[in-house]
Design goal:
alpha/beta; 3-stranded mixed beta sheet; 283 residues; 12 helices; single chain
Length: 283
């Protein structure tokens, strides 16, 4: 679809495919790309036909991090973060709160926290190098799959920077504090296979069939599971990181009661009993 700068948004069946598109620059991040990403996610959320969102990169890379020309323009004491965020957002605001499940918006702010608020699952399809800001964006997805040739690096320490945009919170929860320290302090490159072993990615697929495998998984989610269930469970998981067990238990009990009165629950039982494909509506 047109209307997006440095990004392509397409709908393939029930899957919204978002592709970072600066292939000659390994999809290095720009303010225009950030604005387009938010617009594309908003479009996918609004489209009731779309049930799963896949985020990937054009060409041989996922995202090489912030464009180096942008980094070179930063001056000491300049409020760079606010300026870049303002350029990306401009006057457009979107409400990503799904209204399903517990409200996670108080916990996930900043430039990319809205990705946690989106009711539809977001899969990062890491087809190639993911570095710096590119890796950060991937961490905000609900799941990550990697091509067998993908490489990962935080890159910040080798640029004289620090763990930005909440990565100091997100990364240890995926790979543990020791692995997070290693990746952050060394800025070394990790292979897709190592990333899978430490839990940075869910699964590695062969590079030659990578996007087909990711899209097959996304299609399975979109066609066989309840959109309402996915929305509530996504909110439950992100909320639970700020809850103790009893709080999470109470939320689960309350949400289960709501599920019993939903159309998707009735359809979930009916299609199983009738031995047919599910026809969930998300209601």
């Amino acid at each position: 679809m047109t209307g997006y700068e440095d990004l392509i948004y397409e709908v393939k069946g029930r899957v919204g495919l978002v592709t970072l598109s600066r292939p000659d620059k390994l999809n290095a991040w720009t303010a225009a790309m950030e604005k387009s990403l938010k617009q594309a996610i908003a479009a996918a959320v609004k489209d009731e036909a779309v049930r799963v969102i896949v985020l990937t990169g054009a060409g041989r890379g996922f995202c090489a991090g912030a464009d180096m020309n942008l980094l070179q323009s930063i001056k000491p004491a300049s409020n760079w973060e606010d300026r870049e965020l303002a350029k990306a957002a401009r006057d457009e605001t979107f409400d990503f709160n799904s209204g399903l499940g517990p409200d996670v918006s108080p916990h996930y702010g900043g430039r990319f926290g809205y990705l946690m608020q989106v009711k539809k699952p977001i899969i990062a399809a890491i087809n190639g190098p993911a570095a710096g800001l590119g890796l950060v964006v991937a961490l905000y997805a609900d799941m990550r799959f990697a091509g067998s040739d993908a490489k990962f690096t935080t890159a910040f320490a080798s640029r004289g920077l620090i763990a930005e945009h909440g990565i100091s919170w997100l990364l240890p929860r995926l790979v543990g504090p020791a692995n997070a320290m290693d990746l952050l302090l060394s800025s070394r490159k990790a292979t897709a296979q190592e990333a899978e072993r430490m839990g940075l990615v869910n699964k590695v697929f062969d590079q030659a069939n990578f996007m087909g495998a990711v899209m097959d998984y996304a299609k399975t989610l979109a066609e066989t599971t309840s959109p309402r269930s996915m929305a509530v469970m996504k909110a439950q998981v992100w909320k639970a990181l700020f809850q103790d067990f009893n709080e999470a238990l109470a939320v689960g009990d309350a949400e289960m009661q709501k599920s019993f009165s939903s159309a998707d629950f009735k359809e979930g039982v009916a299609h199983f009993v009738e031995k047919r494909a599910a026809n969930f509506t998300g209601k």
